[in-house]
């Protein structure tokens, strides 16, 4: 039987050499310190502090440094779109990192790294050196990596990048990578990708991030992302769910993302992936339902409109999942989501009935 610890050690040693990198793939005050999973176990925790206060070291960009860079047009477009769509306050990380970022192409791609990590990497942002490397065959991936650059800050040994937080104290520990990669790719598609081009990068993570934004709100979630504020995202989701459920959801997204991007995923893992897939979708659905029920209870929605809204949101969730040649049980996933939706509608209907009965007795 193969010992996977050797692969893990090679991975950790490699990352220590190249620094903390964010890649693009194809295909005990609780409120201040969050449990950070190491290998997705609740027993392995480190302190993750509030995001640092953003300060401007720079307040403009110098495009001259990219005058001879092969990606200068893409970089110029990135700068223009970011400054058009976001406030200067939200671009502090972007301005600070842009002054020293290096962007280069890898003609042979990431062959060795992909073999070692069992991935299909086409772009990478190294936070330690503030360096972006792009596979020359996938030039458009630069926008994904530039977004990582624009949302990253380091302080006290912790890397804050969008919704991902990483520490190497006592070994590598990270939290939020799955939702972070999904939302990074979602923003790349929203602002920089031609609508006619369908991206396959982080497909499932992107769809989940889209639904989370629907719950939190576009403006608010974009601001939290650019300000590297995972804590703020957790606070928003805690309005409609428990802290434990929110943290479990983020941890499940991390593990799920690891599995779906593994080129050599073993068949025996399919049941575990299916369970994660269900838990993630059920959390998203329950959170959306909790938010929407607030409008119903204060009289902003009728039971008919509520029913249509619940069903439409449930139907927008992906229930099929194919990884390599492995398929999950679509019927099981659908049944779980249908059960959640049905129970929520029954609860609201009973509440409406009780309210009418109560008024009738007066």
Short synopsis of the structure:
The chain is an alpha+beta fold.
Structure characterization notes:
The N and C termini lie far apart (73 Å). The model is unreliable at 1-5, 7-20, 25-47 and 357-362 (pLDDT under 50). The chain contains 13 helices and ten strands. By secondary structure, the protein is an alpha+beta fold. It has helices spanning 4-18, 72-85, 92-98, 111-117, 142-150, 177-192, 203-216, 218-226, 230-238, 243-260, 270-297, 303-316, 330-361; strands at residues 21-25, 102-106, 121-126, 131-135, 152-155, 158-161, 164-167, 173-175, 322-323, 326-327.
Key attributes of the depicted protein:
53% helix, alpha+beta, four-stranded mixed sheet, 362 residues
Low-confidence stretches: 1-5, 7-20, 25-47, 357-362
**Helix/strand/pairing class, anyone?**
alpha+beta
Q: Reading side by side through the largest sheet, how are the strands ordered?
A: 1-3-4-2
**Biggest pleated-sheet summary:** 4 strands, mixed
Based on CA atoms alone, the radius of gyration comes out at: 22 Å
Encode the helix/strand succession as letters: HEHHEHEEHEEEEHHHHHHHEEH
Instruction: Output the number of helix runs.
Output: 13
Helical content (DSSP H or I, runs of 4+): 40-55%
**What shape does the CA trace take?**
globular
Overall mean pLDDT score? Answer: 80
Distance between the termini: 73 Å
Strand element count: 10
In terms of DSSP E residues, the strand content is 5-15%
- Quaternary status of these chains? single chain
């Amino acid at each position: 039987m193969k010992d996977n610890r050797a692969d893990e050690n090679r991975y950790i040693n490699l990352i220590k050499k190249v620094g903390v990198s964010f890649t693009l793939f194809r295909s005990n005050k609780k409120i201040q310190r969050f449990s950070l999973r190491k290998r997705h176990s609740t027993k392995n925790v480190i302190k993750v502090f509030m995001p640092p206060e953003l300060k401007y070291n720079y307040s403009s960009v110098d495009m001259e440094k990219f005058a001879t860079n092969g990606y200068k047009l893409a970089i110029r477009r990135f700068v223009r779109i970011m400054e058009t769509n976001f406030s200067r306050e939200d671009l502090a990380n972007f301005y600070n990192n842009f002054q020293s970022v290096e962007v280069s192409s890898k003609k042979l791609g990431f062959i060795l790294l992909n073999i070692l990590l069992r991935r299909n990497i086409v772009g990478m942002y190294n936070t330690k050196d503030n360096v972006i490397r792009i596979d020359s065959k996938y030039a458009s991936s630069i926008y994904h990596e530039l977004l990582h650059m624009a949302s990253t800050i380091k302080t006290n040994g912790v890397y804050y990048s969008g919704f991902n937080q990483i520490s190497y104290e006592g070994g590598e520990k990270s939290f939020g990578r799955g939702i972070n990669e999904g939302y990074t790719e979602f923003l790349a598609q929203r602002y920089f990708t031609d609508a006619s081009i369908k991206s396959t990068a982080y497909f499932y993570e992107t769809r989940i991030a889209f639904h989370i934004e629907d719950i939190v709100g576009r403006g608010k979630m974009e601001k939290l992302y650019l300000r590297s504020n995972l804590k703020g995202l957790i606070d928003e989701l805690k309005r409609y769910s428990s802290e434990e459920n929110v943290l479990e959801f983020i941890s499940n997204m991390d593990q799920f993302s690891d599995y779906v991007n593994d080129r050599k995923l073993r068949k025996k893992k399919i049941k575990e992936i299916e369970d994660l897939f269900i838990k993630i979708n059920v959390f998203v659905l329950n959170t959306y339902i909790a938010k929407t029920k607030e409008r119903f209870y204060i009289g902003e929605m009728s039971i008919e409109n509520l029913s249509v809204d619940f069903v439409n949101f449930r139907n927008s969730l992906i229930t099929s999942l194919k990884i390599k040649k492995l398929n999950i049980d679509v019927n099981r996933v659908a049944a779980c989501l249908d059960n959640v939706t049905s129970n929520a509608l029954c609860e609201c209907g009973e509440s409406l009935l009780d309210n009418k009965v109560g008024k009738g007795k007066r």
